[in-house]
Specification:
The chain has 95 residues and is mainly α. Helices cover 65% and strands 4% of the residues. The chain has helices spanning 3-29, 39-52, 64-84, and strands spanning 34-35, 91-92. The chain starts with a helix and ends with a strand. The mean pLDDT is 77.
């Protein structure tokens, strides 16, 4: 497997794992959140976009500060976006 394909596969696995964990956690804690008919398609598109984005350089070590910023900042941005436009993520939320 080429390094480019390996990095794309890693991004796809991470994005799919994060999406799966997020959906599972939200489904368990908030049963009022409905799913639209196009949700699986939208989720697959989210994983594909995450797979294609990213640097095409070699493997690099990520520091603690960078990981902390990503782990705290990205969920905040995602939740703010989902609250503003739940339909864009395939959700039929009842706020």
């Amino acid at each position: 497997m080429s390094p480019h394909h390996a990095r794309a596969l890693r991004r796809a696995l991470v994005a799919g794992g994060v999406l799966g964990a997020t959906l599972g956690a939200h489904a368990l804690t908030n049963p009022d959140v409905g799913m639209t008919a196009g949700a699986p398609f939208i989720w697959s598109q989210i994983v594909m976009v995450a797979t294609l984005l990213g640097r095409r350089t070699g493997w690099r070590v990520r520091g603690f500060a960078r990981c902390l910023i990503l782990l705290a900042g990205l969920p905040f941005v995602a939740h703010a976006t989902i609250i503003a436009a739940p339909w864009a993520f395939g959700l039929g939320a009842h706020h």
